[in-house]
Amino acid sequence: MAEVESILEMTGRRDEFRREVISRIGAWSVDHPRQKPDYEKIFPRPIIALRESFFEERKKQVRKINEDLLVLLTDGPDKMQPDAAAAATTTLTTLKSRFGYCDNCAKDAVLALIRKRYS
Questions:
Q1: In degrees to the nearest 10, what's the CA dihedral of 50, 55, 60, 66?
Q2: 77/83 Cα distance (integer angstroms)
Q3: Listed residue (74, 64, 75, 69) closest to 93, CA to CA
Q4: Is 39 left (phi over 0), alpha (psi -120 to 50) or beta?
């Protein structure tokens, strides 16, 4: 909870924030008996902030994976560090098996992603 409070830049007393969270969930539960709380409806702004924080923290890692995948598809695994080649190969295998990508399609998708997100 402390990490969430830090990400959301909670000012004031943490116990008040925590009581507010419990109160909102309780109020939602009263209005929606026997339903599991829908946290995205209960806390829309904090959920967006947490997602943005999560992506920002992993942005460099995702970029590195994409760049390694591009090197793998362009130059092959011999031009890469073994661990990077293994990770890129795993990613490529997942793209092929799970989403039906071919090598050229994966390369095009990675290039488009890098241009859109990291340029």
A1: 160
A2: 10
A3: 69
A4: alpha
- Indicate the burial class of 39 (C-beta count within 10 angstroms; 0-12, 13-18, 19 or more): middle
The CA distance from 8 to 28, in Å, is 21
As a whole number of angstroms, the distance between CA 76 and CA 68 comes to 10
Q: For the chain, 119 residues long, give each residue's pLDDT as a single digit of tens.
A: 888 888 888 877 888 889 999 999 999 999 999 999 999 999 999 999 999 999 888 888 888 999 999 999 999 999 899 999 999 999 999 999 999 999 999 999 999 988 888 77
Q: Return the amino acid letter for 80.
A: M
